[in-house]
Design a protein that fits this description.
Number of strands: 12
Helix content: 25-40%
Distance between the termini: 48 Å
Order of helices and strands: EEHEHEHEHHEEHEHEHEHHEE
Shape: globular
Structural class: alpha/beta
Largest sheet: 7 strands, mixed
Strand order of the largest sheet: 8-4-3-9-10-12-11
Radius of gyration: 18 Å
Length: 247
Amino acid sequence: MQIIPALTLNYNSCPTFHSNTRVVRDKQGKILYRNTTNFFREDLDWKKFLDYIKNKYQNTPKVNVICHACSDGSEPMSLVMLLREHLPEEYKKFIPVLAKDIDKTVVYRAQQDYVTLFYPDVRLIDRFTNGKYNKYFSPYKAIFEDQSLQVIVNKDLKKDIKFSVADIKEDITSMPSENTIVFCRNFWPYILPEINREKLAQQLAQKLKTNCMVVTGNFDRSVEAGRFLQSAGFKSVNGLCNVFESV
């Protein structure tokens, strides 16, 4: 792999790089939503989150994990790598991760054997897998002018994720009501008008009854998604920003 000068990353702030950035507009040119993501997005304390779910579900034989707005698969792949490396005896009960997005194009990309990332992605993957980047990704197929890499995804990683096209508002009815973790991160501002955000939070609370969790992102804080979730009946997990659980 090409060697570049070391990059200094501030792990306490949101990264400025994105392994996937795509803007979707309507016929008038108005932005409907953005597909913007990267591996191990830093608005979730991944290590603390892992410790929490390990303890929370220690006596649960099967945990349902659903990742909405999965984009190119960076987030579900981040979670699966973390589980495989740090919970080797338990990770299978969290598998498969059901990764879903309303955008057929990004789901199609996510189902392919490769993914596009940047060098900071590589460094974050190495950081959270204890230097196991090469275990999950083969040497790049292409390197582009913006220094992004197209790399081949290990088949063992992809087989633990099931990708499909789905809208969370319609998908809620099929979610298991017990022992379920729902990632619904960084898309709440695109849900308009505001009453629909409140409705989504209520629907999630009505469906996710026992031993369930909802994970949001920093972008969602701009429209107070957490307030809607707590008003609907979830409680904020102490010490874990953007994580809520059923009461």
